[in-house]
Design goal:
By secondary structure, the chain is α+β, with helices and mostly antiparallel strands. It has 2 domains: 11-120, Creatine Amidinohydrolase, Chain A, domain 1 (3-Layer(aba) Sandwich), CATH 3.40.350.10; 125-338, Alpha-Beta Complex (Creatine Amidinohydrolase). The chain contains 9 helices and 19 strands. The chain has helices at residues 18-25, 50-56, 68-78, 92-101, 110-121, 125-148, 155-168, 230-249, 256-269, and strands at 11-15, 33-36, 41-45, 61-64, 83-86, 105-108, 173-174, 179-182, 203-208, 210-212, 215-216, 219-224, 281-283, 290-294, 308-311, 314-317, 321-324, 327-331, 336-338. The strands form 6 sheets. Strands 4-3-2-1-5-6 form a 6-stranded mixed beta sheet, with helices on both faces. A 3-stranded antiparallel beta sheet has the order 7-10-11. A 3-stranded antiparallel beta sheet has the order 8-9-12, covered by helices on one side. β13 and β14 form a beta hairpin. The protein is elongated, with a radius of gyration of 23 Å. It binds manganese (II) ion. Manganese (II) ion binds at residues 218, 310, 312, 326.
């Protein structure tokens, strides 16, 4: 397990968010406490998880949770701990409970939370493999959806079919609520699928991902049905050029706002600057949105080798249509590897 500098002779760390507990132990559970001291790592879980955790949790001693505050106090006392750092993502009630029940000073630490987010952003080989596996599942579902989309089917049916196919191909669940928006609805970057039926001349934007071993994938493709007007083709190709421009800038050490600018400049130069409102990308891992953020505000954030980010510029013309194209990129020492295999030339169904 990674060593945290918040663990010392007199200090310990208590992790209770499911995502960080899973990250550090490799074992998922809805409830539990991970206590990290200089001498050992202890995972407290209840009877629902006790047996499985003993098999699967890595680098920890698994203890059956019964009277948790007493159990934690016993360890803290035995090891002469004076201060206990906790994550800041907690409910006030949990903080108050810990403060009143534990015998040492309890310190919610933003730095600790950020450190865990930073650690999570750089992937191990196993994490990379899980994300690639999730992505391959989504790609198979996308191939199938191309045969399903036709005039008359609804956005909801497209979204439901993508979800069903991802589950059939081995996703444990979807990574997030699937977006399938068409026609004028496609100008809503994060629109919700409706009962609108597909018509000839529609763009359909699908943003979806699978979850595999707890890890998310994220991809977006925009296809059209019947025909595309010159304006539609122009907007599509502008987004595609923008996406290639930002991809070309992704490498370890690149400043995230510069990567964003790469895509943003192409779109602005084509005259669509005001129609690209969101950031160009985000980290992906156990959560669908993680560090780092690729946006104009990310001036002090540099990419690191091993991070996985989305690259998803878009143009959204209100009441008309929208286009977004999204791949996942694995940041390398020199350049990046595109983890998304699905082609990006405009598909007319
Ligand atoms: Mn995304």
């Amino acid at each position: 397990m990674v060593k945290l500098r918040y663990v010392s002779d007199s200090t310990a760390v208590l992790v209770f968010t499911p995502v960080n507990r899973r990250y550090l132990t490799g074992f998922p559970s809805s409830l539990g406490f991970l206590l990290l001291t200089k001498n050992e790592n202890i995972l407290f879980v209840d009877s629902r998880y006790f047996e499985a955790a003993q098999d699967k949790a890595k680098d920890v001693r698994v203890v059956l949770l019964n009277n948790i505050y007493e159990q934690i106090n016993d360890v803290l006392k035995k090891e002469n701990i004076k201060k206990l750092y906790i994550e800041t993502e907690n409910e006030i009630s949990l903080y108050n409970t810990l403060k009143s029940k534990l015998s040492v000073k309890v310190v919610p630490s933003e730095k600790l939370s950020n450190r865990l987010l930073d650690l999570r952003s750089v992937k191990t080989k196993q994490e990379l493999e899980n994300i690639i596996a999730a992505q391959r599942i989504a790609e198979k579902a996308f191939e199938d959806i191309l045969n399903f989309i036709k005039v008359g089917v609804t956005e909801k049916q497209i979204a439901a079919t993508l979800d069903y196919k991802m589950l059939c191909y081995g996703a444990e669940k979807t990574a997030f609520d699937t977006i399938a928006v068409s026609g004028a609805n496609s100008s809503l970057p994060h629109g919700v699928p409706t009962d609108r039926k597909i018509e000839k001349g529609d763009f359909i934007t699908m943003d979806f991902g699978a979850m595999f071993n707890g890890y998310c994938s994220d991809m977006t493709r925009t296809v059209c049905v019947g025909f595309a007007t010159d304006e539609m083709k122009n907007v599509y190709n502008t987004v595609l050029s923008a996406q290639k421009a930002s991809e070309g800038l992704v490498t370890a050490g690149a400043v995230c706002s510069e990567v964003d600018k790469g895509a943003r400049d192409v779109i602005a130069n084509a005259g669509y600057g005001e129609f690209f409102g969101h950031g160009t990308g985000h980290g992906i891992g156990l959560f669908i949105h993680e560090k780092p953020n690729i946006s104009p505000k990310s001036e002090n954030i540099k990419l690191r080798a091993g991070q996985i980010i989305s690259n998803e510029p878009g143009i959204y013309l209100p009441k008309k249509f929208g286009v977004r194209i999204e791949d996942m990129l694995f940041v390398k020492k020199n350049g990046c590897k595109n983890l998304t295999k699905t082609p990006k030339d405009l598909i007319i169904l």
